[in-house]
Automatic annotation (TrEMBL):
Domain of life: Bacteria
Protein name, UniProt field: Uncharacterized protein
Length: 91
C-alpha cells in the first residue's frame, strides 16, 4: 500500500492528511493541537514534506503513523473523542 501526504500548514486551520494513494481514502488526519505537538517535538520536518525522494517520504509517513498511534493510545477526557476516533484519527 502506498500513501500520499496532503499538508496545508500555512492556513488559518492547518491540517496534514495521509491518504491511501490508490483509493484516496483518508488514513490519518492531524490538525491544530497534533501539529503543534509535532512542531514542539521537532518531528514536523518541512524538508521531508517537500522532498520527492521515496525513502524520505516513506520514513516521514512511518513517523506520522507512529505519532498517530501514540496519540490514539493516550487516555482522553474529551467526551466526543470516541466518535472522532471511529471514522479517522482526528488528532
Amino acid at each position: 500500500m502506498t500513501y500520499l501526504i496532503d499538508a496545508w500548514l500555512d492556513r488559518p486551520q492547518p491540517y496534514l492528511r495521509i491518504l491511501n494513494r490508490e483509493t484516496g481514502e483518508v488514513c490519518a488526519l492531524l490538525e491544530n493541537e497534533a501539529l503543534d505537538e509535532l512542531r514542539e517535538q521537532g518531528e514536523l520536518d518541512m524538508q521531508g514534506l517537500a522532498s520527492s525522494e521515496p525513502t524520505v517520504q516513506k520514513e516521514l509517513v512511518r513517523n506520522l503513523f507512529l505519532f498517530c498511534y501514540a496519540r490514539a493510545l493516550r487516555p482522553h477526557t474529551d467526551p466526543e473523542y470516541p466518535q472522532q476516533r471511529a471514522a479517522v484519527w482526528r488528532l
